[in-house]
Amino acid sequence: MRSNRWRLLLLAALLVTPLAAQRGEPVTVTGAISVEGAPAGRRDWSGVAVWLTPQSEEARHADGAGKRLRILQHGKEFEPHVLVVPVGATVDFPNLDPFFHNVFSLFDGRRFDLGLYESGASRSVTFPRAGICFLFCNIHPNMSATVVVVDTPYYATTGRTGAFTITGVPPGRYRLSLWHDQFRPTRPADFPRDVVVGASLTLDPITLVQAHDPMTGHQNKFGHEYTPPAHNPLY
Q1: Residue 113 banded pLDDT, cuts 50, 70, 90
Q2: Which of 89, 192, 205, 213 could form a Cys-Cys staple with 67, CB 3.0–4.6 A?
Q3: 40 bridge partner residues
C-alpha cells in the first residue's frame, strides 16, 4: 500500500513540475553598456534607457495610470536628465529654484507647454503614448532632459558604470530597445533586437559610440533663438 502511495506522489510531481516550468516565474535581466569614442576622462555611462517590449501584444501591461514620477528643476538643470516612464504615467515638474521656469516640449512623446511658474510651484504632465519627449526651459537654453515613454513595464536606466537591471520579467520573447541623447549603438540597425528571456538572462555587452546630441542648439518654444534675459533675479 505504501509503495503504491509513493508511486502516485512521484507521478503527481512529474506532472506538476512541467506545468510550473511552463508558467515561468518572473526573472531578473541584467546587462551593461560601454562607450567608444567618448570624451577623454568621461567615465559616467548613466542615463541610457533600456527596455524590453513583449512581442505578444496580449503580454503588454504598460498601464501607468496612477503612477507618478518627478523631474526636478534645480540649479538651472533638470534632474534626472533621462526618465523612463510607462504609457499613462504622470510626471511632476516642481520648481526648486529661487526663480521662474517654463517647461515645454514640441516632440512626439507629448507636446506641451507648462507656462511660466514661480519657485515652489509644481505642474504635471500625463504621457498617453509611447515616444521620445525632449524637454526644455523657455528661459534657460542650457536646460534639457528627456522622457522616454515605453509601452511595457519592463525598463531601466543604466548607472554610472553602465550596468542595468530589469526585474520581474516573465520568460518569453521580447524586443530589446535602448536610447540615449548622446550615444548610439555601433550598429544602429541591430536595435531593437529580439531576445528570449528564459530562467535568467545576462545580455551580451552592448557597445555604444558618441553621436550628435539632438538637443544642441535648440530653439525656444516659439521657434526663435533664445534672447538672454535681462539681469533680473526672477530668472
Answers
A1: very high
A2: 89
A3: none
